[in-house]
TrEMBL record:
InterPro entries: Cyt_c_oxase-like_su1_dom, Cyt_c_oxase-like_su1_sf, Cyt_C_Oxase_1, Cyt_c_Oxase_su1_BS, Cyt_c_oxidase_cbb3_su1. Pathway: Energy metabolism; oxidative phosphorylation. It is found in: Cell membrane. It comes from Vibrio marisflavi CECT 7928. The keyword Transferase does not apply. Belongs to the heme-copper respiratory oxidase family. Gene3D superfamilies: Cytochrome c oxidase-like, subunit I domain (1.20.210.10). This is cytochrome-c oxidase. Its cofactor is Cu(2+); heme b. It is a multi-pass membrane protein.
Length: 470
C-alpha cells in the first residue's frame, strides 16, 4: 500500500472480499450437493434438514447474498473511494454494514435448513431477518451516497452510477415484495394474494437478478476491466447508454415469468416486449466491455485474468440473448418448468457472474494485499479450463435435457392423451442430470484451486517490502 492509500479504508474492503470468497465456495458446494441429490435421491439421508427443499434456498441465498452481496459491497466501497478520491463517509458505519450483513447470512444459514421460510423465490427469509436486511441496506446506502457527496472530484465515475442503481432498486423492490403480516416470530404471510402476489414477486425476483447480478457486476467490471487491461473504457458514452437502457427497461421485464398464467395478458405482453428490447442495452454494454479488452490484444492472448473477464462477457451475451428468447410465448411454452431454464440461469450465473467475480478476485486480491503477482500462474490456467469445462458440462446437459423434456411434455396421442408419463420424462433426464452434477463439481474444484492460489499469494512474503523494512 503506497502513501496515497492512507486516506482510504481498505481493511473493511478486505473483510468483504474474504467473506465473498468463503460464501462463493460454500454456496456453490451446496449447489453441487443439490445436483447430486437430484440424481441420487438417497443422498437426502431421510433427513428433513438435508433435503432439496431446505437446501435449495440456502444455495441461492449463499450465492446471491453471500458471494455476490459481499463482493459488490466490498468492490463498491473500494471503487467509490478511489474514483471520488476521498475516504469513506464513516468508517464505523462501514463496519456496521459488514458485521450486520454477516449476521444476516448466519441467520439464513440457521433458519432455512430448519424450514423457516416465506417460500418466495430469492426472498425466503422470514420477517425479522427481512427487517434486519432493510436496516443494514439503508446503512450501506448512507455510507455509499455519503461518500459520493464528499467526493473531491466533480465527475461521478460510471461504475458508481451502476452501484447507485443497484442499491436504490434493490431497496425499493425488496421492501415492497416483503410487505407481510407476522403471525409468529418465525411465520408471516404476504399482504398480497393470488395474481397480485405473483406480479410483485417476479418484479422482485427478476430484478434481483437484473440489479444485483447484472447492474452491480457491470459497475464492478467497468472499473476493474480497464485497470486489468491497462486501457480506458472503449466508449464512455456507450456505458451511459448501457446504464439508462438497463434502468429504463429491466424493471418492466419480470412478468415474462408469468406467461400462460392468470395474470392479465397485457401485463404478460409488457414483460415479453421489454425483455426483447433489453437485447439492445445489454449487448451495447457487452460490446463496450469486450472492446475495452480487445484494445490490448497482446495482453488478452497471454493473461488468463483478462481471459476470465472476456469469457464472462461472452456468457453475458449468451444469457442476454437466451433470456429474451425464452420470454417469447412459443419458446416459453416449450421451456417453462423444464431443465432448460435452469441451464439458462446457470450459464448466466456461472458464466457471467462467477467468472466476473473470479477474474476480479485474481486481479484485485493481490493488489489489495500489496502483492506483485499471483503465487501460481499454473493454478490460474488450470482454474480457467476447469471453470469452462464445468460450465459447458453443466449448461449443455441442461439445455439438451430441457429441450427434450419440453417436447416430451407437449407430445400427445391423436386423442389428446399425453404420450409420456412423468417417470418416462425423469428417465430421459437422468443421464443429463448426472452430467450436470459432474460439471458443477468440476467448477467447485476450480474454485478450491483459486482459494489455494489466493491464500498462498497473500501469505507469500513480498521481498520488496521486506527489504524496505530491513
Amino acid at each position: 500500500m503506497n502513501n496515497t492509500d492512507a486516506q482510504y479504508s481498505l481493511k473493511v474492503v478486505k473483510y468483504f472480499v474474504v467473506a465473498a470468497v468463503i460464501w462463493a465456495v460454500a454456496g456453490m458446494t451446496i449447489g453441487a450437493i443439490l445436483a447430486a441429490q437430484l440424481y441420487w435421491p438417497a443422498l437426502n439421508f431421510d433427513s428433513e434438514y438435508f433435503q432439496f427443499g431446505r437446501l435449495r434456498p440456502l444455495h441461492t441465498s449463499g450465492v446471491i447474498y453471500g458471494f455476490v452481496g459481499n463482493m459488490l459491497m466490498g468492490a463498491s466501497l473500494y471503487i467509490v473511494q478511489r474514483s471520488c478520491q476521498c475516504g469513506l463517509f464513516n468508517k464505523s458505519l462501514a463496519w456496521m454494514v459488514f458485521w450486520g450483513w454477516q449476521l444476516i447470512l448466519w441467520l439464513a444459514l440457521i433458519t432455512l435448513p430448519l424450514g423457516y421460510t416465506t417460500s418466495k423465490e430469492y426472498a425466503e427469509l422470514e420477517w425479522p431477518i427481512d427487517i434486519l436486511i432493510a436496516l443494514v441496506w439503508v446503512l450501506y446506502a448512507v455510507l455509499f451516497f455519503g461518500t459520493i457527496a464528499k467526493r473531491k472530484v466533480q465527475h461521478i465515475f460510471v461504475a458508481n452510477w451502476f452501484f447507485a442503481a443497484f442499491i436504490i432498486v434493490i431497496a425499493l423492490i425488496f421492501v415492497i415484495n416483503n410487505l407481510e403480516i407476522p403471525v409468529t416470530l418465525t411465520k408471516s404471510y404476504s399482504i398480497y394474494a393470488g395474481a397480485n402476489d405473483a406480479i410483485v414477486q417476479w418484479w422482485w425476483g427478476h430484478n434481483a437478478v437484473g440489479f444485483m447480478l447484472t447492474a452491480g457486476v457491470i459497475g464492478m467490471n467497468y472499473y476493474f476491466i480497464p485497470k486489468a487491461a491497462d486501457r480506458p473504457i472503449y466508449s464512455y458514452r456507450l456505458s451511459i447508454i448501457n446504464f439508462w437502457g438497463l434502468i429504463g427497461f429491466y424493471t418492466w421485464a419480470g412478468t415474462h415469468h408469468l406467461l400462460y398464467s392468470s395474470v392479465p395478458v397485457w401485463v404478460q405482453n409488457i414483460g415479453m416486449i421489454m425483455s426483447l428490447i433489453l437485447w439492445l442495452p445489454s449487448w451495447a454494454g457487452a460490446f463496450n466491455i469486450g472492446m475495452t479488452l480487445l484494445q490490448n490484444k497482446p495482453k488478452l492472448k497471454s493473461d488468463y485474468i483478462l481471459m476470465f473477464f472476456f469469457s464472462a462477457v461472452i456468457y453475458y451475451c449468451l444469457a442476454t440473448f437466451e433470456g429474451p428468447l425464452l420470454a417469447i410465448r412459443w419458446f416459453n411454452m416449450l421451456a417453462h418448468n423444464t431443465e432448460w431454464v435452469i441451464g439458462h440461469v446457470h450459464s448466466g450465473a456461472l458464466g457471467w457472474v462467477a467468472l466476473s467475480g473470479i477474474a476480479t478476485f485474481y486481479y484485485f486480491i493481490p493488489k489489495l494485499w500489496g502483492k506483485e503477482k499471483l503465487w501460481s500462474t499454473r493454478l490460474l490456467k488450470w482454474h480457467f479450463w476447469m471453470a469452462h469445462i464445468g460450465i459447458a458440462f453443466y449448461a449443455i446437459s441442461l439445455w439438451v435435457a430441457g429441450i427434450g423434456e419440453g417436447y416430451m411434455w407437449l407430445a400427445q396421442h391423436e386423442n389428446g392423451e399425453l404420450k409420456y408419463s412423468f417417470i418416462e420424462v425423469l428417465d430421459f433426464k437422468a443421464p443429463w442430470l448426472l452430467l450436470r452434477f459432474i460439471g458443477g463439481s468440476i467448477f467447485v474444484a476450480g474454485m478450491l484451486l483459486m482459494v489455494t492460489n489466493l491464500y498462498k499469494t497473500i501469505r507469500t512474503p513480498n521481498p520488496l517490502l521486506e527489504k524496505e523494512a530491513a
